[in-house]
Amino acid sequence: MLAGLDEIAGTGRDARRGGYSRHLWQGADLELRAWFTERAERLGLMVATDRNGNLWAWWGEPGPGAVVTGSHLDSVPGGGAYDGPLGVVSAFEAIGRLQASGFVPSRPVAVLVFAEEEGSRFGIACLGSRLMTGGIDADRARALVDPDGVTLAEAAVRAGVDPERLGADREALGRIGLFIELHVEQGRGLIDLGRPVAVASSILAHGRWRLTVTGQGNHAGATLMPGRRDPMVAAARAVVAVHEASSAIPGARATVGRLEVVPGGTNVIASTVHAWLDARCETDAGTRALVAAITARVEEAVGLNGCSVSVTEESWTGTVTFDHGLRECFGRELGGVPFLPTGAGHDAGVLAASVPSAMLFVRNPTGISHSPEEFAEADDCVAGIDALETLLRSLL
Ligand code: HGY
Ligand code: MN
Ligand code: MN
Ligand code: MN
Prior knowledge:
The protein has helices spanning 3-7, 27-42, 85-100, 127-133, 138-143, 152-158, 170-175, 189-193, 231-247, 284-303, 324-333, 347-351, 378-395, and strands at residues 46-49, 55-59, 66-72, 109-114, 176-184, 197-203, 205-214, 218-219, 253-262, 268-269, 272-281, 308-317, 320-321, 339-342, 357-362. By secondary structure, the chain is an alpha/beta fold.
């Protein structure tokens, strides 16, 4: 494992799920933030937290036109060691190398860690970058609740962030001249190409929807089977409907990875089940059509058990095409580097609507991500740092 990843390898391990659970402003995330500060200070960088809880480490005076690189330190529940941290560790490594060689940057440089990239605590992925760019309304963000019923506003206060100042941050955004996010690949593109590093070309359109299935709560022992309106059974049919509707559309991806059963007792027929749908497709229109097809199938499916369903959009990101100028520059500087699209969402994708943004991917030999099986060979991580260093040299 890369030296920097080694330093945080013990932080946020999840003994029950395997892998890591590192969620916004909770124990492991706070420890990682402390690590970030200490790591940055070892390089003489100046650390600051912005209005939305994103962490910055500056090499040189903070100012407009900065070359900014980084990723995130939070994880999905039971996630891998590389998704997020690889980009942060690589940024520090690349800057350390530039400093060691006596390189003097001609513009400000910063390492940036976005808050709540996975949306694992408050449900909205890329929350820190959406807040910064004004992509989510601050009132709506403040009212988001975590699984324990704590609002984002309350959690912010506990973390020392003023909830009244959450929201579009023109000053922070105005400092980003361009953003580069290095990330472990979440797919098999580089395995198939037999290459260690690629440049991102695009991100699929994607979003999250809440399916609320409503039935009739009742006693598990006193209620005979005929006539039950059990939303768990309806939700099971709904999950199958999601899988079947999306499997019929080439290139579509749709997943239900999280359910909340209300009230959730072994001897209780549930009254409501919330199921979260993650749906993605190549184009915006294709993704909208996918969700429409899923909605129709799910409505029909839950009706078979006398239940009803409502579908609410919780987040949306249209297809991202990364900055052509940066892609050309990366192609030139990293001679012969392949370009790959991705189905995974990233803060770089959210930022791309506001500032020139680009991504580097490092091969993942398992092809598996959002799982403890996610991996990257040390040699490939070094190839990623080499690429990032080359790009920083040419852009600075
Ligand atoms: O869910 C995603 O695509 C990303 O990894 N946050
Ligand atoms: Mn992820
Ligand atoms: Mn990530
Ligand atoms: Mn009883």
